[in-house]
Amino acid sequence: MIRYAIALAAAPFVVAAPTPVQAQATGDLAAVQRHLQSVVTMTADFSQTDRNGKVLTGVLTLKKPGKLRFQYEKGVPILVVAEGGALTFIDYSVRQVQRWPIKNTPLGVLFDPSRDITRYARLVGGGDDRIVSVEANDSKHPEAGRITLVFARAATAPGGLMLQGWVALDSQNNRTTIRLANQKFGVPVSDNTFKWNDPRRGGTRN
Predict the structure, then answer these.
(1) Measuring CA to CA, which residue among 7, 56, 11, 21 is closest to residue 131?
(2) Which of 21, 99, 104, 201 has the CA that lies 20 to 30 A from 28?
(3) What's the CA angle centered on 60, arms 12 and 177, to 5 degrees?
């Protein structure tokens, strides 16, 4: 179970082996950047599938700048929270807390869309004009793996694209797939959403 969350953190739609396409800061790649820049808050239901086919579900909440929460289904004693520039993985079953700089994880792409997208991402082709896929990775941190964001064209969504999920591949080639549903943008999100109970001390962190 720890591996599932770490792969997701260090890293929502299964994508067949994509064909690289030359990336340019225009067209679909520019639309992806507009989408990422436009989203201030987002909530969605998610399902997470690991390489062995095990599925976990939960609720994703995002709030800029720099806040993210993966709340897993009841009975799953893990939590992933981003705040204060760090991504935190909490396993309540063993009272363990691990933290990584969010900028060193593939999920950092969701928080820093002001960067030149052509420096860390490229379009990948999938044969369906209704879908836009972008592979992102940080060449300075290959140990973080890479992430492929998957969007569907939707005129009413930010930037004309609806984030459907992503596929994360870690440095050991472990694949984690996240699918999103019931996406909502611009909804009120309290900062209290990103507080968590520290199992090492029984206290509350934010």
Answers:
(1) 21
(2) 104
(3) 20
Residue that the structure tokens 């592979």 belong to: 135
Which amino acid, residue 206? Answer: N
76 in helix, strand or coil?
Answer: coil
Is 98 a domain residue? yes
Flag whether 38 is in a domain.
yes
* Cβ-based burial of 175 (10 A; exposed 0-12, middle 13-18, buried ≥19): middle
Number of other CB atoms surrounding residue 198 within 10 Å: 14
Side chain identity at residue 162, one-letter code: M
Report the distance separating Cα 14 and Cα 168, nearest Å: 10
The DSSP line for 95-157 is TEEEEEEGGGSGGGGGT-TTS-GGGTEEEEE-S-TTEEEEEEE-TT-GGG-EEEEEEEE-TTS
pLDDT per position as a tens digit, 65-85: 889 999 999 999 999 999 888
Domain that holds residue 72: 2-187
Does 51 or 92 have the greater pLDDT score? 92
On average, the pLDDT of the chain sits at 81
Number of domains forming the structure of the chain: 1
117 or 143: which leads in pLDDT = 117
